[in-house]
Specification:
With 495 residues, this protein is an alpha+beta fold. It contains 14 helices and 19 strands.
Length: 495
């Protein structure tokens, strides 16, 4: 009987040992693949795991004789196996998220729609035949051409009318001059920003949509060693509604100047309404040299925003970091909301959110509305820029807190759908290694360029709109601050 029990016990010991070995190999493999530990630290972790697991295997299979000791060993083996399996899964999720974040799409999608009034008898694509359609003459021509070609292939004939500005197009549509209009979906936010058309979404409907691809020219100008050489990162928050791979206005524009030697990060913010000369590479499709709000550059891709910011500040941007603000809600939701601090005098209530002075906990919808609100503040776009910084910092605080462990897999999935960067996977892992090895305390510095409000012609609208004319002294100061941090000094010494 005892012999039989010993045999059974040995079988269980061998089985649990196999599970333990397999789970530990899986965890170590994922850790090696992630490549975030220094060689010395990885070697140390590997040796510790092997020693612990080897001792436990020996106890399970050979040295543990009593029932109680055997049970204890089996329980320890089970716990370590589960821990290794979960650890390996979490590490795998991290690696998958990093791969997705750093895999910048070669092409960006643009969606084009034909819209009619809610009261229109036109119900679908086929019923467009014989009606009239309006579109912009010199703005968004690629999208209009794609839609008209699509209609032609379907043998749908429409009376076509062209207009020189978004205002003229919308007036013709609402006055009944045309039955339908063609708009690029990236322009929808522009329309909603016009006071006269703030109800555009509710009194119109889409009867047909098509999409076309444009080349994404955004690429990195990598530094030789990201852990020792200073670099600039453009952080661009897109207001796209059609998915992360779709172009949309740049609602958040910040330049992060990072100096790993001095452990200094300078965040330089550019208000979305800043009136600038647009710059882009061939193929981006922007109006090169035209004056416009900087937010409109995002409609031609992150690369256009990057080139325009480089021209404005006289700097080289090494990497871009795109944030999809519509997908931010998903991330904020799985994080359980974010905390923002409202300074005295800045409490406000809108139809979408309410904040009081002090610390406020915002859910996903409230955080997005808070990041986009400007009409409640006398500073308008300036305060919106500050709010956006608060929301992003609130997300970072949550992501870097121990509480992330409770919902780690979902958070990694959401991050993969929210962020995209031209920084390579290796460069990100090098930075993580640097942080783990050196454990530096980063000094955060902030600055925002400023200007005065005006109403001026904007190229992407073909019409005048509210803008912020740059105060060139603040632009010069921003250049000097960035130069100081790149040179190894603090921006706070720049007057």
């Amino acid at each position: 009987m005892n012999e039989k029990k010993n045999v059974i016990s040995k079988i269980f010991g061998i089985l649990f040992s196999l599970v333990l070995v397999i789970s530990s190999i899986y965890c170590l493999y994922q850790l090696i693949q992630l490549n975030v530990l220094t060689s010395k630290l990885l070697l140390l972790v590997t040796i510790i795991i092997i020693l612990i697991y080897l001792i436990l295997v020996l106890l399970l299979c050979f040295m543990s004789k009593g029932i109680v000791s055997k049970i204890i060993c089996i329980l320890l083996a089970a716990l370590l196996s589960v821990g290794s399996g979960i650890g390996g899964y979490y590490i795998s999720k991290t690696g998958g998220a990093l791969n997705k974040i750093t895999s910048v799409t070669k092409n960006a999608k643009n969606t084009v729609s034909i819209l009619v009034k809610q009261s229109s008898d036109i119900k679908d694509k086929k019923s467009l035949n014989g009606f009239s359609v309006g579109y912009l003459r010199n703005i968004g021509t690629a999208g209009s051409a794609a839609m008209l070609e699509d209609l032609n292939k379907s043998n749908i004939k429409m009376e076509q009318k062209q207009y020189d500005s978004m205002t003229a197009l919308l007036e013709a549509f609402y006055n009944g001059e045309v039955d339908s209009i063609i708009i690029n979906e990236s322009s929808r936010s522009q329309i909603l920003d016009m006071e006269a058309y703030s109800n555009f979404d509710s009194n119109t409907r889409v009867v047909y949509q098509t999409s076309y691809k444009v080349k994404n020219n955004d690429s990195a100008t990598s530094v030789s060693d990201i852990t020792s050489k200073p670099f600039n990162v453009l952080i661009s928050g897109s207001d796209t509604r059609g998915g992360f791979d779709e172009n949309g206005r740049s609602d958040v524009i910040m330049v992060a100047t990072v100096n790993p030697k001095t452990n200094t990060i300078l965040l330089t913010s550019v208000p979305r309404d800043f009136y600038v000369t647009t710059a882009c590479d061939a193929g981006d499709g922007c109006m090169q040299g035209a004056l416009d709000k900087i937010t409109h550059t995002g409609m031609h891709g992150t690369n256009t925003t990057k080139r325009t910011v480089e021209q404005l500040l006289g700097i080289e941007i090494n990497y871009t970091f795109k944030v999809g603000f519509d997908t931010v809600t998903e991330l904020v939701d799985v994080l359980g909301g974010v905390d923002v601090y409202v300074e005295p005098g800045y409490a406000t209530t809108t139809s979408q959110f309410s904040v009081h002075e002090g610390v406020n906990h915002l859910n996903a919808e409230q955080a997005l509305a808070y990041a986009r609100e400007r009409y409640s503040y006398t500073e308008g776009d300036r305060q919106r820029t500050k709010n956006q910084q608060q929301v992003l910092m609130g997300i970072i605080d949550k992501i870097t807190s121990p509480a992330i462990v409770t919902n780690y897999a979902s958070i990694m999935d959401s991050m993969a759908n929210t962020f995209s960067t031209t920084m390579s996977n290796d460069e990100i892992t090098d930075l993580i290694k640097y942080q783990l090895n050196k454990n530096p305390k980063w000094k955060m510095e902030q600055y925002m360029v400023d200007g005065t409000g005006d109403t001026l012609m904007c190229a992407e609208l073909g019409d005048a709109a509210s803008v912020m004319v740059p105060d060139q002294s603040t632009v010069k100061k921003a250049k000097d601050k960035i130069s100081a941090v790149l040179a190894g000094n603090s921006s706070e010494g720049v007057e």
